[in-house]
Design brief:
Layout: H1 2-6, H2 10-30, H3 36-49, H4 64-75, H5 83-104, H6 114-121, H7 134-153, H8 162-175, H9 182-193, H10 198-221, H11 225-235, H12 244-253, H13 255-269, H14 276-295, H15 310-318, H16 328-351, E1 369-372, E2 384-385, H17 392-395, H18 405-417, E3 422-424, H19 430-436, H20 438-441, E4 444-448, E5 451-454
Parallel strand pairs: 1-2, 1-3
Antiparallel strand pairs: 3-5, 4-5
Keywords: Membrane, Transmembrane, Transmembrane helix
Protein name: Glycosyltransferase RgtA/B/C/D-like domain-containing protein
Organism: Sandaracinomonas limnophila
Length: 456
Amino acid sequence: MLRFLKSGSSISLLLFIAASFFFIYSKIENHSIPFAWELRYFLLGEKLNQGFRLYQDILENIAPASAAIYSLLHLFSIPLKLTPLIAIGIIGIQGIIFQLTIQKFDLLPKLGYLPFMLYVSMFFISMELWSLSPALMGLTFLILAWNEIVYQQRGLQANDRVFLIGLHLGLASLFFFSYAFFLLWGLYALIAYTGVNFRQIILFLVGFIFPYLISISYLNYTENLGSLFQVFQASAFHFNVIKSKDLYHIFISYLPGLTIALMGFYILLSTNKIRTNAKKAQQSNFAWIILSIILLFTLPNYSRYNLVFFIPGFCLIGFHIFFLFKKPWAQELNIWITISLLFISQQIEFKQDKSEFLKPGKLPLKNEKLLILGPQIEEYLNNKMSGPFINWELSKSLFENINDYEKVITLTELFEKNPPTYIFDPEKTFKRIQTKIPNIGLKYREFGNNIFKRVD
Protein backbone atom coordinates (compact mmCIF):
# COMPACT_ATOMS: atom_id res chain seq x y z
CA MET A 1 0.00 0.00 0.00
CA LEU A 2 2.82 2.43 0.82
CA ARG A 3 4.26 2.08 -2.67
CA PHE A 4 0.84 2.92 -4.09
CA LEU A 5 0.54 6.01 -1.86
CA LYS A 6 4.07 7.20 -2.67
CA SER A 7 3.66 6.71 -6.40
CA GLY A 8 2.17 10.16 -6.98
CA SER A 9 -0.68 8.58 -8.92
CA SER A 10 -3.84 10.65 -9.22
CA ILE A 11 -5.84 7.49 -8.50
CA SER A 12 -4.45 7.26 -4.97
CA LEU A 13 -5.32 10.91 -4.31
CA LEU A 14 -8.85 10.56 -5.72
CA LEU A 15 -9.50 7.43 -3.64
CA PHE A 16 -8.30 9.25 -0.52
CA ILE A 17 -10.51 12.28 -1.23
CA ALA A 18 -13.50 9.99 -1.86
CA ALA A 19 -12.92 8.20 1.46
CA SER A 20 -12.62 11.55 3.27
CA PHE A 21 -15.92 12.78 1.87
CA PHE A 22 -17.53 9.50 2.89
CA PHE A 23 -16.49 10.14 6.50
CA ILE A 24 -17.73 13.71 6.32
CA TYR A 25 -21.05 12.64 4.86
CA SER A 26 -21.40 10.10 7.68
CA LYS A 27 -20.74 12.82 10.23
CA ILE A 28 -23.28 15.18 8.70
CA GLU A 29 -25.92 12.45 8.60
CA ASN A 30 -25.28 11.23 12.16
CA HIS A 31 -24.33 14.51 13.83
CA SER A 32 -27.86 15.51 14.83
CA ILE A 33 -26.60 16.65 18.24
CA PRO A 34 -23.67 19.08 17.98
CA PHE A 35 -20.83 19.62 20.41
CA ALA A 36 -21.52 22.18 23.13
CA TRP A 37 -18.86 24.56 21.85
CA GLU A 38 -20.23 24.30 18.29
CA LEU A 39 -23.67 25.49 19.39
CA ARG A 40 -22.14 28.24 21.52
CA TYR A 41 -20.16 29.71 18.64
CA PHE A 42 -23.11 29.32 16.27
CA LEU A 43 -25.31 31.28 18.69
CA LEU A 44 -22.55 33.88 18.95
CA GLY A 45 -22.84 34.58 15.22
CA GLU A 46 -26.60 34.93 15.56
CA LYS A 47 -26.30 37.39 18.46
CA LEU A 48 -23.75 39.52 16.60
CA ASN A 49 -26.12 39.85 13.65
CA GLN A 50 -28.90 40.91 16.03
CA GLY A 51 -26.87 43.96 17.03
CA PHE A 52 -25.26 42.78 20.26
CA ARG A 53 -21.65 43.92 20.63
CA LEU A 54 -18.85 41.45 21.20
CA TYR A 55 -17.08 41.83 24.58
CA GLN A 56 -19.39 44.67 25.68
CA ASP A 57 -22.77 42.93 25.44
CA ILE A 58 -21.60 39.37 24.76
CA LEU A 59 -19.05 38.36 27.38
CA GLU A 60 -17.15 35.73 25.41
CA ASN A 61 -13.38 35.15 25.28
CA ILE A 62 -13.21 34.43 21.57
CA ALA A 63 -10.78 36.17 19.22
CA PRO A 64 -12.38 38.83 16.98
CA ALA A 65 -11.50 37.23 13.61
CA SER A 66 -13.19 33.96 14.62
CA ALA A 67 -16.25 35.85 15.85
CA ALA A 68 -16.45 37.57 12.46
CA ILE A 69 -16.45 34.20 10.67
CA TYR A 70 -19.31 32.86 12.81
CA SER A 71 -21.21 36.07 12.15
CA LEU A 72 -20.78 35.54 8.40
CA LEU A 73 -22.00 31.94 8.67
CA HIS A 74 -25.23 33.12 10.27
CA LEU A 75 -25.53 36.06 7.84
CA PHE A 76 -25.43 33.66 4.87
CA SER A 77 -27.82 31.23 6.63
CA ILE A 78 -25.34 28.34 6.64
CA PRO A 79 -26.78 25.74 9.07
CA LEU A 80 -24.69 24.30 11.85
CA LYS A 81 -25.00 20.84 10.32
CA LEU A 82 -23.04 21.86 7.20
CA THR A 83 -20.06 23.52 8.91
CA PRO A 84 -17.97 20.29 8.60
CA LEU A 85 -17.85 20.95 4.84
CA ILE A 86 -16.17 24.29 5.52
CA ALA A 87 -13.85 22.64 8.03
CA ILE A 88 -12.72 19.97 5.53
CA GLY A 89 -12.09 22.71 3.00
CA ILE A 90 -9.80 24.48 5.47
CA ILE A 91 -8.03 21.23 6.36
CA GLY A 92 -7.56 20.50 2.65
CA ILE A 93 -6.01 23.94 2.08
CA GLN A 94 -3.65 23.37 5.01
CA GLY A 95 -2.70 19.97 3.60
CA ILE A 96 -1.94 21.48 0.19
CA ILE A 97 0.30 24.16 1.73
CA PHE A 98 2.01 21.47 3.78
CA GLN A 99 2.58 19.27 0.71
CA LEU A 100 3.81 22.11 -1.52
CA THR A 101 6.25 23.39 1.12
CA ILE A 102 7.81 19.94 1.49
CA GLN A 103 8.09 19.49 -2.27
CA LYS A 104 9.27 23.00 -3.16
CA PHE A 105 12.09 23.11 -0.60
CA ASP A 106 13.08 19.40 -0.82
CA LEU A 107 12.48 18.72 2.86
CA LEU A 108 11.83 15.03 2.16
CA PRO A 109 12.52 12.58 -0.68
CA LYS A 110 9.82 11.97 -3.27
CA LEU A 111 6.78 10.76 -1.34
CA GLY A 112 4.03 11.46 -3.88
CA TYR A 113 0.87 12.72 -2.20
CA LEU A 114 1.75 11.03 1.10
CA PRO A 115 2.44 14.30 3.02
CA PHE A 116 -1.00 15.67 2.07
CA MET A 117 -2.77 12.42 2.86
CA LEU A 118 -1.03 11.84 6.20
CA TYR A 119 -1.68 15.42 7.30
CA VAL A 120 -5.39 15.23 6.50
CA SER A 121 -5.63 11.72 8.01
CA MET A 122 -4.41 13.00 11.38
CA PHE A 123 -7.67 14.94 11.69
CA PHE A 124 -9.59 11.66 11.66
CA ILE A 125 -8.62 10.98 15.28
CA SER A 126 -11.78 12.80 16.38
CA MET A 127 -14.99 14.20 14.94
CA GLU A 128 -14.27 17.39 16.86
CA LEU A 129 -11.37 18.12 14.53
CA TRP A 130 -13.74 18.08 11.54
CA SER A 131 -15.73 20.92 13.09
CA LEU A 132 -15.14 24.60 12.45
CA SER A 133 -13.17 25.86 15.45
CA PRO A 134 -11.09 29.03 16.05
CA ALA A 135 -7.96 26.89 16.55
CA LEU A 136 -8.47 25.19 13.16
CA MET A 137 -9.02 28.49 11.32
CA GLY A 138 -5.95 30.09 12.91
CA LEU A 139 -3.79 27.03 12.14
CA THR A 140 -3.97 27.91 8.42
CA PHE A 141 -1.97 31.08 9.05
CA LEU A 142 0.52 29.23 11.27
CA ILE A 143 1.27 26.87 8.38
CA LEU A 144 1.62 29.82 6.01
CA ALA A 145 4.13 31.32 8.47
CA TRP A 146 6.00 27.99 8.55
CA ASN A 147 6.13 27.99 4.74
CA GLU A 148 7.73 31.46 4.78
CA ILE A 149 10.22 30.45 7.47
CA VAL A 150 11.36 27.44 5.44
CA TYR A 151 11.78 29.81 2.48
CA GLN A 152 14.01 32.10 4.57
CA GLN A 153 16.05 29.17 5.91
CA ARG A 154 17.05 27.84 2.50
CA GLY A 155 19.74 30.56 2.06
CA LEU A 156 22.32 32.25 4.22
CA GLN A 157 20.62 35.64 4.16
CA ALA A 158 17.05 36.56 5.04
CA ASN A 159 15.07 39.13 3.04
CA ASP A 160 12.20 41.51 3.68
CA ARG A 161 9.61 38.75 3.28
CA VAL A 162 10.05 38.25 7.03
CA PHE A 163 7.21 40.81 7.24
CA LEU A 164 4.88 38.08 5.92
CA ILE A 165 5.93 35.70 8.69
CA GLY A 166 4.96 38.25 11.33
CA LEU A 167 1.74 39.07 9.46
CA HIS A 168 0.68 35.40 9.30
CA LEU A 169 1.45 34.87 13.00
CA GLY A 170 -0.52 38.00 13.90
CA LEU A 171 -3.53 36.87 11.86
CA ALA A 172 -3.34 33.38 13.41
CA SER A 173 -3.51 34.85 16.91
CA LEU A 174 -6.51 37.00 15.95
CA PHE A 175 -8.37 33.75 15.31
CA PHE A 176 -7.04 31.98 18.42
CA PHE A 177 -5.31 34.18 20.98
CA SER A 178 -3.03 31.43 22.33
CA TYR A 179 -1.27 31.37 18.95
CA ALA A 180 0.35 34.69 19.89
CA PHE A 181 3.00 32.63 21.69
CA PHE A 182 4.20 31.37 18.29
CA LEU A 183 5.81 34.78 17.92
CA LEU A 184 8.62 33.34 20.07
CA TRP A 185 8.91 30.36 17.71
CA GLY A 186 9.16 32.66 14.70
CA LEU A 187 11.89 34.74 16.34
CA TYR A 188 13.87 31.64 17.26
CA ALA A 189 13.58 30.11 13.78
CA LEU A 190 14.77 33.33 12.13
CA ILE A 191 17.58 34.23 14.52
CA ALA A 192 18.98 30.70 14.88
CA TYR A 193 18.78 29.49 11.25
CA THR A 194 18.85 32.56 8.97
CA GLY A 195 21.06 35.60 8.54
CA VAL A 196 18.33 37.94 9.72
CA ASN A 197 19.48 41.42 10.77
CA PHE A 198 18.06 43.86 13.30
CA ARG A 199 16.06 45.82 10.72
CA GLN A 200 14.42 42.63 9.48
CA ILE A 201 13.54 41.59 13.02
CA ILE A 202 11.79 44.94 13.46
CA LEU A 203 10.02 44.35 10.14
CA PHE A 204 8.94 40.91 11.38
CA LEU A 205 7.53 42.44 14.58
CA VAL A 206 5.75 45.17 12.60
CA GLY A 207 4.10 42.46 10.50
CA PHE A 208 2.87 40.76 13.69
CA ILE A 209 1.55 43.99 15.19
CA PHE A 210 -0.11 45.29 12.01
CA PRO A 211 -3.35 43.20 12.17
CA TYR A 212 -3.58 44.01 15.88
CA LEU A 213 -3.44 47.73 15.14
CA ILE A 214 -6.36 47.37 12.73
CA SER A 215 -8.38 45.33 15.25
CA ILE A 216 -7.61 47.70 18.13
CA SER A 217 -8.56 50.71 16.01
CA TYR A 218 -11.91 49.12 15.12
CA LEU A 219 -12.64 48.07 18.71
CA ASN A 220 -11.71 51.52 19.96
CA TYR A 221 -13.97 53.13 17.32
CA THR A 222 -16.89 50.94 18.45
CA GLU A 223 -16.03 51.60 22.13
CA ASN A 224 -15.36 47.91 22.77
CA LEU A 225 -11.63 47.98 23.50
CA GLY A 226 -12.01 48.44 27.25
CA SER A 227 -14.56 45.62 27.35
CA LEU A 228 -12.12 43.29 25.58
CA PHE A 229 -9.48 43.91 28.26
CA GLN A 230 -12.03 43.30 31.02
CA VAL A 231 -13.19 40.01 29.51
CA PHE A 232 -9.71 38.61 29.00
CA GLN A 233 -8.43 39.85 32.33
CA ALA A 234 -11.02 37.60 33.95
CA SER A 235 -10.78 34.60 31.64
CA ALA A 236 -7.52 34.34 29.70
CA PHE A 237 -3.75 34.80 29.64
CA HIS A 238 -3.08 32.88 32.82
CA PHE A 239 -1.35 29.56 33.25
CA ASN A 240 -3.41 26.53 34.18
CA VAL A 241 -2.37 23.35 35.96
CA ILE A 242 -3.37 20.39 33.77
CA LYS A 243 -5.45 17.85 35.64
CA SER A 244 -4.60 14.17 35.26
CA LYS A 245 -7.97 13.54 33.59
CA ASP A 246 -7.28 16.22 30.97
CA LEU A 247 -3.75 14.92 30.42
CA TYR A 248 -5.08 11.40 29.82
CA HIS A 249 -7.69 12.84 27.45
CA ILE A 250 -4.98 14.61 25.44
CA PHE A 251 -2.72 11.55 25.38
CA ILE A 252 -5.40 9.16 24.13
CA SER A 253 -6.72 11.58 21.52
CA TYR A 254 -3.34 12.39 19.99
CA LEU A 255 -1.77 8.95 20.44
CA PRO A 256 -1.58 8.27 16.65
CA GLY A 257 0.33 11.47 15.93
CA LEU A 258 2.52 11.10 19.02
CA THR A 259 3.43 7.51 18.11
CA ILE A 260 4.38 8.47 14.56
CA ALA A 261 6.41 11.45 15.82
CA LEU A 262 8.35 9.36 18.36
CA MET A 263 9.15 6.71 15.77
CA GLY A 264 10.27 9.39 13.32
CA PHE A 265 12.41 11.08 15.97
CA TYR A 266 14.11 7.79 16.85
CA ILE A 267 14.96 7.12 13.21
CA LEU A 268 16.10 10.70 12.67
CA LEU A 269 18.66 10.44 15.48
CA SER A 270 20.32 7.43 13.83
CA THR A 271 20.79 8.79 10.31
CA ASN A 272 22.84 11.41 8.48
CA LYS A 273 20.82 11.32 5.26
CA ILE A 274 19.09 14.64 5.87
CA ARG A 275 19.76 17.66 3.66
CA THR A 276 20.96 20.92 5.23
CA ASN A 277 17.73 22.82 4.59
CA ALA A 278 15.74 19.84 5.87
CA LYS A 279 17.83 19.82 9.07
CA LYS A 280 17.00 23.48 9.66
CA ALA A 281 13.31 22.76 9.08
CA GLN A 282 13.37 19.84 11.53
CA GLN A 283 15.17 21.87 14.19
CA SER A 284 12.56 24.61 13.81
CA ASN A 285 9.95 21.87 14.01
CA PHE A 286 11.33 20.68 17.36
CA ALA A 287 10.92 24.24 18.62
CA TRP A 288 7.30 24.15 17.32
CA ILE A 289 6.59 20.98 19.32
CA ILE A 290 8.24 22.31 22.50
CA LEU A 291 6.24 25.54 22.27
CA SER A 292 3.07 23.50 21.65
CA ILE A 293 3.66 21.68 24.94
CA ILE A 294 4.08 25.01 26.75
CA LEU A 295 0.91 26.24 25.07
CA LEU A 296 -1.04 23.49 26.84
CA PHE A 297 -0.82 25.51 30.06
CA THR A 298 -2.47 28.58 28.48
CA LEU A 299 -5.53 27.06 26.77
CA PRO A 300 -9.07 27.98 27.88
CA ASN A 301 -9.95 24.25 27.92
CA TYR A 302 -8.41 20.93 26.88
CA SER A 303 -10.93 19.74 24.32
CA ARG A 304 -9.46 18.09 21.23
CA TYR A 305 -10.35 20.93 18.89
CA ASN A 306 -8.06 23.33 20.80
CA LEU A 307 -5.00 21.10 20.28
CA VAL A 308 -4.76 20.93 16.48
CA PHE A 309 -1.47 22.87 16.52
CA PHE A 310 0.29 19.60 17.45
CA ILE A 311 -0.61 17.95 14.14
CA PRO A 312 1.83 19.73 11.72
CA GLY A 313 4.77 19.15 14.07
CA PHE A 314 3.96 15.48 14.58
CA CYS A 315 3.48 14.91 10.85
CA LEU A 316 6.73 16.55 9.71
CA ILE A 317 8.93 14.55 12.06
CA GLY A 318 6.88 11.40 11.57
CA PHE A 319 7.45 11.28 7.80
CA HIS A 320 10.93 9.86 8.36
CA ILE A 321 9.50 6.45 9.16
CA PHE A 322 8.35 6.16 5.54
CA PHE A 323 11.75 6.55 3.88
CA LEU A 324 14.53 6.05 6.43
CA PHE A 325 13.64 2.43 7.15
CA LYS A 326 15.68 0.37 4.71
CA LYS A 327 13.51 -2.72 4.54
CA PRO A 328 10.30 -2.48 2.45
CA TRP A 329 8.34 -4.67 4.87
CA ALA A 330 9.16 -2.25 7.74
CA GLN A 331 7.97 0.73 5.70
CA GLU A 332 4.78 -1.11 4.82
CA LEU A 333 4.25 -2.08 8.45
CA ASN A 334 4.45 1.57 9.48
CA ILE A 335 1.59 2.61 7.22
CA TRP A 336 -0.63 -0.14 8.63
CA ILE A 337 0.30 0.86 12.18
CA THR A 338 -0.74 4.42 11.34
CA ILE A 339 -4.08 3.29 9.89
CA SER A 340 -4.73 1.06 12.91
CA LEU A 341 -4.00 3.84 15.38
CA LEU A 342 -6.38 6.19 13.59
CA PHE A 343 -9.10 3.53 13.62
CA ILE A 344 -8.56 2.81 17.33
CA SER A 345 -8.72 6.52 18.15
CA GLN A 346 -12.06 6.82 16.33
CA GLN A 347 -13.47 3.80 18.18
CA ILE A 348 -12.43 5.22 21.56
CA GLU A 349 -14.34 8.41 20.80
CA PHE A 350 -17.45 6.67 19.49
CA LYS A 351 -17.73 4.18 22.36
CA GLN A 352 -16.45 6.01 25.41
CA ASP A 353 -16.09 9.77 25.25
CA LYS A 354 -19.43 11.53 24.87
CA SER A 355 -18.70 14.33 27.34
CA GLU A 356 -18.34 17.00 24.67
CA PHE A 357 -21.72 16.31 23.05
CA LEU A 358 -24.75 18.28 24.12
CA LYS A 359 -27.19 16.40 26.30
CA PRO A 360 -30.87 16.44 25.26
CA GLY A 361 -32.84 19.39 26.60
CA LYS A 362 -35.28 18.78 29.45
CA LEU A 363 -37.52 21.84 29.33
CA PRO A 364 -41.13 21.40 28.08
CA LEU A 365 -40.64 24.26 25.60
CA LYS A 366 -40.22 24.30 21.84
CA ASN A 367 -39.68 27.16 19.37
CA GLU A 368 -40.06 29.72 22.15
CA LYS A 369 -38.00 32.85 22.79
CA LEU A 370 -35.98 31.56 25.71
CA LEU A 371 -33.37 33.07 28.01
CA ILE A 372 -31.27 30.72 30.17
CA LEU A 373 -29.54 32.15 33.21
CA GLY A 374 -27.23 29.20 33.65
CA PRO A 375 -24.87 26.87 31.76
CA GLN A 376 -27.63 24.66 30.26
CA ILE A 377 -27.01 25.77 26.67
CA GLU A 378 -28.53 22.56 25.27
CA GLU A 379 -32.01 24.00 25.85
CA TYR A 380 -31.43 26.35 22.90
CA LEU A 381 -31.43 23.41 20.47
CA ASN A 382 -35.25 23.42 20.37
CA ASN A 383 -35.82 27.11 21.13
CA LYS A 384 -34.85 30.59 19.98
CA MET A 385 -32.21 32.25 22.11
CA SER A 386 -32.94 35.66 23.65
CA GLY A 387 -30.32 37.84 25.27
CA PRO A 388 -26.52 37.72 24.88
CA PHE A 389 -25.59 35.43 27.80
CA ILE A 390 -23.85 32.69 25.81
CA ASN A 391 -20.88 32.01 28.08
CA TRP A 392 -22.45 31.76 31.52
CA GLU A 393 -19.13 31.52 33.37
CA LEU A 394 -18.35 35.05 32.19
CA SER A 395 -21.90 36.41 31.99
CA LYS A 396 -22.86 35.59 35.58
CA SER A 397 -20.61 38.41 36.80
CA LEU A 398 -23.26 40.84 35.48
CA PHE A 399 -25.76 39.44 37.99
CA GLU A 400 -23.49 39.83 41.02
CA ASN A 401 -23.74 43.00 43.12
CA ILE A 402 -26.87 44.21 41.34
CA ASN A 403 -26.88 47.25 43.62
CA ASP A 404 -24.30 48.72 41.24
CA TYR A 405 -26.12 51.37 39.20
CA GLU A 406 -24.07 50.68 36.07
CA LYS A 407 -25.02 46.99 36.13
CA VAL A 408 -28.69 47.86 36.55
CA ILE A 409 -28.55 50.04 33.43
CA THR A 410 -26.65 47.36 31.48
CA LEU A 411 -29.05 44.54 32.40
CA THR A 412 -32.10 46.69 31.66
CA GLU A 413 -30.79 47.51 28.18
CA LEU A 414 -29.90 43.87 27.42
CA PHE A 415 -33.30 42.55 28.53
CA GLU A 416 -35.19 45.20 26.58
CA LYS A 417 -33.13 44.73 23.42
CA ASN A 418 -34.26 41.14 22.91
CA PRO A 419 -36.97 40.35 25.52
CA PRO A 420 -37.60 36.62 26.08
CA THR A 421 -40.98 34.97 26.41
CA TYR A 422 -39.61 32.42 28.88
CA ILE A 423 -36.71 32.56 31.34
CA PHE A 424 -35.10 29.44 32.74
CA ASP A 425 -33.35 30.28 36.02
CA PRO A 426 -31.54 27.20 37.44
CA GLU A 427 -29.03 29.45 39.26
CA LYS A 428 -31.77 31.36 41.19
CA THR A 429 -30.53 34.58 39.59
CA PHE A 430 -33.71 36.09 38.20
CA LYS A 431 -35.36 36.21 41.59
CA ARG A 432 -32.72 38.73 42.66
CA ILE A 433 -33.46 40.78 39.52
CA GLN A 434 -37.16 40.86 40.38
CA THR A 435 -36.28 42.55 43.66
CA LYS A 436 -33.52 44.88 42.45
CA ILE A 437 -34.86 45.76 38.96
CA PRO A 438 -38.68 45.73 39.27
CA ASN A 439 -39.29 47.21 35.79
CA ILE A 440 -37.96 43.89 34.44
CA GLY A 441 -38.98 41.51 37.21
CA LEU A 442 -42.64 42.51 37.33
CA LYS A 443 -43.09 41.53 33.67
CA TYR A 444 -42.53 37.82 34.50
CA ARG A 445 -44.25 35.28 36.71
CA GLU A 446 -42.93 31.92 37.82
CA PHE A 447 -45.15 29.11 36.59
CA GLY A 448 -42.86 26.08 36.92
CA ASN A 449 -39.68 24.87 38.50
CA ASN A 450 -37.35 27.87 37.94
CA ILE A 451 -39.25 28.82 34.75
CA PHE A 452 -40.67 32.33 34.34
CA LYS A 453 -43.13 33.48 31.68
CA ARG A 454 -43.70 36.98 30.38
CA VAL A 455 -47.18 38.20 31.40
CA ASP A 456 -47.52 41.66 29.83
